[in-house]
Amino acid sequence: MTRRFRLGLIVNPLAGMGGRVGLKGTDGRAEEALKLGARPSSNDRAVRALKRLAASHPSLTIVAAHGAMGQDAANETRFLAELTTVSPGAVTTASDTVAAAREMHSRNVDLILFSGGDGTARDVFEAVGDDVPMLGIPAGVKMQSGVFATSPEIAGEIVAALAAMPDRAKVTYRASEVMDVDEDLLRQDAISPRLYGYARVPHFPLRLQNAKARQHALDEAAVSAAARRLAAGMDRDCLYAVGAGRTAKRVIEALGEKGTLLGTDLVENGKIVARDANEKMILERASERPLKLIVGVVGGHGYVLGRGNQELSPDVIRRAGRDNITIIASQEKLMALPDKRLLVETGDGALDRELAGYWRVVVGPTDEMVMKMVAA
Amino acid sequence: MGKKSSDSVKLRNFHSASWDEPVVMQLGVPGRRGQVFAKPDAEVVKKAGKPDSLIPRELARTTLPKLPEMTEPEVQRHYLHLSQETQGMVNISLFGTCTMKYNARVSETVAQRPFVAEVHPLQPDDTMQGILEILHEFDLGLRELSGMDQFVFQAGGGADAAYTNCVVTRAYHKSLGELGRRNEVITSIQAHPCNAATAAAAGFKVITLNLEENGYPSTEALKAAVSGRTAALFINNPDDMGIYNPNIKEWVRIVHEAGGLCFYDHANFNGVMGKIRARELGFDACMFMLHKTFGAPKGGGGPAVGAYGCTAALAPFLPKPVVVKEKDKYRLDYGMKQSAGKVREFFGNVPQVIKAYAWLCAMGGDGIDEASDISVLANNYMDKKLSKIRGLAMSNPDIRKHRLEMTRWSLGPMKTDTGVGTVEVANRMADYGVDPYWMSHEPWVVPEPFTPEAGEMYSKEDLDYWMAVIAKVSEEAYAEPELVKSAPHNQPIRQIKGDWLDDPEKWAMTWRAYLRKHGSKSGTAEKTAPSHAAE
């Protein structure tokens, strides 16, 4: 018998306030947001999730951050909370989130449930990486990371289902992107999002969704096989730039190498010749031989080029040419995209328009899916 | 509908029988027999030999089979109990994409007559002229409905017919010397999944088109997929969501211009039967499922029939034999030199073809036309009523056109509001005596899907009852979600834990495998047998 389920709870009380007052995020701007009349809502959202959880698990053990960072929500829903030792000030900061998440890690929680947006996800991820699974209650302005439940209630459901599982070794997890944009740049309408890594997120462990979990395993197997096929089919004396992200890196793994998860690696004749390459390195090497790109679909919004892989600059993309770009993704990921479309935003509008149109995305060893790509 | 829809219909207080019935292998007592026969007289033995000696030695088993030893009434009782624990398949079953139809007793009776039941497929053609005549006549009927030039009934189901198309496609391109180059099959994400699956099994690369704003893939997407590598387009229309692609003629033209073939999977024929023909749309081949559209029983992976038809240009590549009529005689032609071979033994599940032929004769051309109208009308009636039930959302709500014979619905809003999703609703509906609905093929393109299909045979009262049940379950989900989540409550078995299905250490297709994986002591097995898998 597995020991009792322990839940970590972090509420970012300031999350989500910037959106309604046009601030595009609240990172470091909380006081301004409050002055503009923003109302905190992330605590209410956490309460909604916990209410759903309380329906089936009223006596669950919760390790909560102090005060507005979790304790309040737990009290309101009558959970008995163990508290972390971090005492945040009147205005909470990112370092409070990091410290609370670290402590929860050392106190062996099975899952960190947080209420916030991409910034909060990034802070929790910074603290625990993929050592501790996490799940987001959607409460932020920016939510491009793949770690959020579709509603606070669903987040509560997922935790309830996890807590009810007799054998936690059976839970399926997926590696989901933690994405965040630099809010200062976003405010100037220059989007510069980054992929910070892959968090461990419970994959719909609801017992009644076994069918979906099975599909997930099949899709994962298909995309791995596709990566092996791509690796085996690499042309000699070509330079392959293999972009960031877990899926594209499977091609590198299939070569028996270890790639850079968050950057572009260069491959020639089956060997990595440069890791985490920048634009200049790519163009220099490409002056001697034909250049081909292998990229994944980064982020929950369907970005293929321009997000998370800026080293694949307009010049690099033009050097390779559209016919020499291969996109690889699982079918499941493609089907989960909003509007089922891929997005491109290279910073070069003319190039974006050239790249827009229909692409054949590799989803399995002998399977492709035709997807529409639009300029973001 | 001012009042709650469940108010106007009285819901039945259904409860299924629960016998707590063990697996048959756990029953019986050594020595019990169903029938005990008298020993033969000495004189008989003298003339004919001992009964054992009548079995050739190579065929005689050396150890006794490990079967449960039971009396005949015990066996009858066991299977009666099992049948009572099901809903019997004559309830209201709006199992979309499968086109559930009543299997008329008269057709069953015809198929049980000796001229069908006692025929062996290897007996000489001239001793089964009647059977061959029916196959031929039915072929002519399907030609009328499709415009194709020849049908074969060898395929044992819809997927087998799609596979037939793969082998015919291969043989066709091979005959042109282009098979090596043409290795891609194009299909859509909402075509029947057997299209992609059989194409992959036949060695083709599969290019899948995604749905766009109108609910079907754009012609631009098709153009991006078509090339000199295109072997064929495999497509359903209407698709798996009841949406008709009006550009289909142009699609066929584009694929033909690239040198590919076009296959029309008629899994969803009910909404268009008698209205359009594969031939006029330009298709080279099509497939009908006799166990869906043509009123023959579903085989559950067994005796179904996928009737595959094609144009004269492809006919030489059909699996053999085909039935041919010469003057007044019928014969099975095995002589086709370019034939793709066989997809299954003999020439089809003849009893099923005969039931479908009986259905076709009973319906007639006008009847088929009217049945199609009714099935579309019934679905539009349901669309109107279902759209008023809380928590339900129609897929592609912005499309102004009507769906044809079925509509893909989503319980996404209900799931978000209450935590109750499509599996729970289906379980709960069974508590009111209706069969669980079909959700969706994978992948799900809308969250928490379900796909009801009324067809032409359910009455308005049946449809009203079904919708009253789902309206009631919606009320329950919003008022008392745990009641729905813990359903079914009125069935012999509650929720099944599906984790065994994923675990090779636990799953068992035979009793022997079950004992091996779960302990061979009969006492242990009895306590954990799958029939008790209820929570």
Fold and architecture overview:
The complex is a heterodimer of chains A (376) and B (535). Chain A is α/β, with parallel strands linked by helices and 376 residues long. Chain A has two domains: 6-205, Rossmann fold, CATH 3.40.50.10330; 218-375. Chain A contains 14 helices and 16 strands. Chain A has helices at residues 17-20, 30-35, 42-56, 71-76, 94-106, 118-128, 152-164, 183-187, 210-232, 246-254, 279-286, 314-320, 331-335, 349-355; strands spanning 6-11, 61-64, 81-83, 111-116, 134-138, 173-181, 193-202, 239-242, 264-268, 271-277, 291-295, 303-305, 325-327, 341-344, 357-364, 367-375. In chain A, helix 3 (42-56) runs parallel beside helix 7 and helix 5 (94-106) packs across helix 6. The model of chain A is unreliable at 205-212 (pLDDT under 50). Chain B has a seven-stranded mixed beta sheet with strand order 1-7-6-5-4-2-3, sandwiched between helices. A three-stranded antiparallel beta sheet of chain B has the order 10-11-12, with no helix packed on it. Chain B has a two-stranded antiparallel sheet with strand order 8-9. The longest helix of chain B is centred in the C-terminal third of the chain and has 37 residues, at 350-386. Chain B is 36% helix and 10% strand. In chain B, helix 11 (278-281) links the parallel strand 5 (261-265) and strand 6. With 535 residues, chain B is α/β, with parallel strands linked by helices. Among the domains of chain B are: 16-84, no CATH class; 107-361, Aspartate Aminotransferase, domain 2, CATH 3.40.640.10; 498-532, no CATH class. The chains are: A alpha/beta (376), B alpha/beta (535). Strand 16 of chain A pairs parallel with strand 3 (205-209) of chain B.
